[in-house]
Amino acid sequence: MVLSALSLVEVVWPSQVLGFIEGTEHQFAGITYSLMAVECIMGTGQLRPAYWKLIFYFFTPLILMGLLCLLIHLYFRNNRNFVQAYQYCICATVVFLYFQEVARSALELFNCHEVDGKLRMRNDVTQVCYEGLHFQFALFLGLPALFLWNIILPLLMFKGVRQNYMQIFHAAT
Questions:
Q1: Distance CA 92, CA 90 (A)
Q2: Under DSSP, is residue 124 helix (H, G, I), strand (E, B) or coil?
Q3: Backbone angles phi, psi at 47, to 5 degrees
Q4: Which of 15, 105, 110, 111 is most solvent-facing, going by the fewest CB within 10 Å?
């Protein structure tokens, strides 16, 4: 995960480090890199692929967590401690599997460089950074995605798993 994040940072890396990062980026990019192809759901309208990718990676794990927690709750409704322990495990697993892709797609919105005197997105030079639709996505989806998925949810999952350690441990054995 660190290697994938390093590849997004614009630094003049030594050639050996750059070769290592490029060679290992897809092997360690995350399980969701090979599980889901966002390009299959992208439309051809006003929204560019970077925006579709962020929308998909932001909302899909939240929906998945909600559905899995609901199923666990309905199936084991008689044992409240058991349900709570498994719900924390499910949420922690989904956060672990998805937070890297959410962070990557959110950071792609802020990865801009200057072209012809204007800041443009590095992966889509037709999009001017921090103007119009890009500004709205960066402000209302990009920043919340970074804070929610990389700070708030991991801390909540750590707190929940730590508080329910005994129930989780006994449920697993």
A1: 5
A2: strand
A3: -75, 130
A4: 15
